[in-house]
Amino acid sequence: MPELPEVETIRRGLEKYLPGRRIAQVEVRLPKLLRNCDPQTLNEDLQGKEFLQVRRVGKILILDCEDWSLLVRLGMTGQLTFRDLHLPDQNSFTTHAITGLQRAQGQFSPDKHTHIIIRCQDETEVLYRDIRQFGKWYLYSTQDLPQAPELQALGPDPFQPSYTLAYLSAQLAKSRRPIKVVLMDQGVVCGLGNIYADEALFIAAIAPQRAANSLNSEEVGRLYQAILQVLRQGIANRGTTFSDYRDADGLRGGNAHYLQVYGRAGQPCYRCGAILQKMTLGGRTTAWCPHCQH
DNA sequence: CCTTATGCCTGAATGC
DNA sequence: TGCATTCAGGCATAAG
């Protein structure tokens, strides 16, 4: 489940490779992933265009090209990897053991889950692989991009100046919803998903079911900082891989080892030893420590 | 305003 | 290397 740290790690990887490369062809094998255009239009509009830069807002990736931008939501299992066809194909052996090992080490080859291929003119390509097909792609002209509904709907990204303590405090004061649910609302703050919301609440020592407007200013202050802390740590560790997440080079992230509560219900709290509990909030499994979080 | 349910999907894990 | 069920969840949408 790529959240902000995972998407940022992919962004940094693609930023190494894409700027300056020119698109030769875009092959879309699963047209339903394109939410505002069809495969033919996409290919015609992007053919011959150069990649300019790769940006990120919350969990959304933006591939800026000449005249156009591709807006990509990775959903649950989306993977964007870069591949240089001049290098030996590390997946040329196809036994399961070898495939699994080499996937863990690097490049993908297209398989039945590879739904979009952006081929560049210099024999390199970007592969989009998405097992559960929850991802969504949008094409916008450079002019229309800032008004894209997918961007307009987002609250501040925690690494943008508009994410301030005053803003978060005001947003939380407006809602009686559980704080965990509010943190995952992309219209309040964008980039947090199930993993980092649980982690931030643990760091801030706040119980996830608390009404957002019940937090006092001290708690909001802790939460404001905890959000930045868990996201920075996630980025520093190149994202959290449980199963599907990979970076632009096909590599796993290293942050799973550092998680305090996510996925640990039933196990002892690292801080106090109490058994971590599980509950459902906003339809999502939530893990928390009833002794440390109040 | 709010919450809950549903659909979209596949693969891993579980139960028999 | 069986077969059916459950679970995982980001997000849009509908219903209560």
Helical coverage, percent range: 25-40%
Per DSSP E runs of 2 or more residues, the count of β-strands stands at 10
- Radius of gyration, in angstroms, nearest whole number: 20 Å
Low-confidence stretches: 92-105
CATH class categorisation of the largest domain = Alpha Beta
Tally of separate domains: 2
Largest sheet: 4 strands, antiparallel
Question: Mean pLDDT, as a whole number?
Answer: 92
What is the tally of helical segments? Answer: 8
The outline comes out as globular
- Please give the CATH architecture of the largest domain: Alpha-Beta Barrel
Outline:
With 294 residues, the protein is of the alpha+beta class. It has eight helices and ten strands.
Question: Can you describe what's shown?
Answer:
With 294 residues, this protein is α+β, with helices and mostly antiparallel strands. The chain has helices at 4-17, 39-46, 96-105, 149-152, 165-173, 179-183, 194-204, 217-236; strands spanning 23-28, 51-57, 60-65, 68-73, 78-84, 114-120, 124-130, 136-141, 277-281, 284-288. It has 8 helices and 10 strands. The strands form 3 sheets. The protein has a 4-stranded antiparallel sheet. A 4-stranded antiparallel sheet has the order 2-3-4-8, covered by helices on one side. Strands 9-10 form a two-stranded antiparallel sheet. The chain binds a DNA duplex (16 and 16 nucleotides) through loops.
